[in-house]
Design a protein that fits this description.
This protein is of the alpha/beta class and about 325 residues long. About 35% of the residues lie in helices and about 30% in strands. The chain contains 11 helices and 13 strands. The structure holds adenosine-5'-triphosphate.
């Protein structure tokens, strides 16, 4: 597919006889944010290192923008931005000098590099500290400088390892906005994280790693359906009409269960459907003369899916 930027087939990494990554398959598309999740030691970092050509593969293949990272690591490094857990800038140099250094490695002509550096630093809101030494930067600023480097490179793929770890809520919010900015610019973003609510807020799809394998892959809704059973739950609070009758008549609705006793003024119902039926529910209740006081999405969070999956996996072991 023309949109594919990374394709792994049967990708495997052995350390001795230990299968750190065990025959995994995945495809990443241009402009998507893809999350790598899983407990410590599940194989996420090893997978990232293989995509970057920083460690050999033991089997299978991985294609990054049409290149083999093992045989063509420089082609891959030129086009892929990498933000490791500990960002490796030279502390005694300024932000500008650090980015100039990268631009020289990439053989970007000097004048163009200067423009790209200024634009990239502007895009991550660090323009005012361009000539400050990196030793004075907070962790949040270093992470943003890492994003600036990716922007300056015009990378087509960005690989971010735990990008928001150690950041306060405001810095996290800002960094996630910058990651969304990369997506808007058409960059495919892979990010590994343990912080599930943040992953959920930014990722289009996630892969759940367990013992070197991808146990589950898809959107959060798809994963919730696989792990917790089919159906999209919502909560409806309404009155002034035959609310349960209306709810049962909506296409796709599977179950309607009262949440507590229904009174004269109406009540609350938990509705499970084969998709998100909130728009249809609002429309039908209002056009039937009913009054809608609450309509809440009860779709399970990634955290609930994750916890449930690993509890089941532990029980089955
Ligand atoms: N250089 C190495 N030599 C031997 N074993 C290794 C090496 N690097 C990783 N491993 C092992 O490979 C497995 C996968 O490790 P990896 O670092 O990829 O996991 P991870 O999912 O990234 O974990 P974390 O969330 O802690 O970063 C683990 O069992 C780890 O001990």
């Amino acid at each position: 597919m023309a949109d594919t930027v990374i394709e792994a087939r049967g990708l495997t990494k052995l350390y001795g006889s230990h299968r750190a990554v065990d025959a995994i398959d995945f495809t990443i598309r241009r402009g998507e944010i893809f999350g790598l999740l899983g407990p410590n030691g599940a194989g996420k970092t090893t997978t990232i290192l293989m995509m970057l050509g920083l460690t050999d593969t033991s089997g299978g293949s991985v294609d990054v923008l049409g290149f083999d990272p093992v045989r063509q690591p420089l082609e891959v490094k030129r086009r892929v931005g990498y933000l490791p857990d500990a960002v490796g800038f030279y502390d005694h140099l300024t932000a500008r000098e650090n980015l100039r250094y990268t631009s020289r490695l990439l053989a970007i002509p000097r004048r163009e590099a200067e423009t790209r550096i200024a634009d990239a630093m502007e895009s991550v809101k660090l323009a005012d500290v361009l000539d400050k030494r990196v030793s004075t930067f907070s962790r949040g600023m270093r992470q943003r400088l890492g994003i600036a480097e990716i922007v300056m490179k015009k990378a087509e793929v960005a690989i971010l390892d735990e990008p928001t770890s150690g950041l306060d809520p405001h810095s996290t919010f800002e960094l996630l906005e910058m990651i969304r900015g990369l997506k808007r610019a058409g960059v495919a973003v892979l990010l590994s994280s343990h912080l599930l609510d943040r992953v959920q807020s930014v990722c289009d799809r996630v892969a759940l790693f367990n013992k070197g394998r991808i146990a589950l892959m898809g959107t959060v809704v798809e994963l919730a359906n696989q792990v917790l059973g089919a159906g999209h739950p919502i909560l409806v609070e309404a009155s002034g009409a035959d609310i349960p009758g209306i709810l049962r008549g909506i296409e796709g609705v599977q179950t309607v269960m009262p949440e507590g006793p229904a009174g004269e003024k109406g009540g609350a119902w938990r509705v499970v459907a084969n998709r998100d039926v909130r728009a249809a529910v609002a429309h039908r209740i209002v056009t039937s003369g009913g009054s809608l006081t609450r309509l809440a999405d009860l779709q399970p969070s990634l955290e609930e899916v994750y916890t449930h999956y690993f509890e089941e996996a532990r029980r089955a072991a």
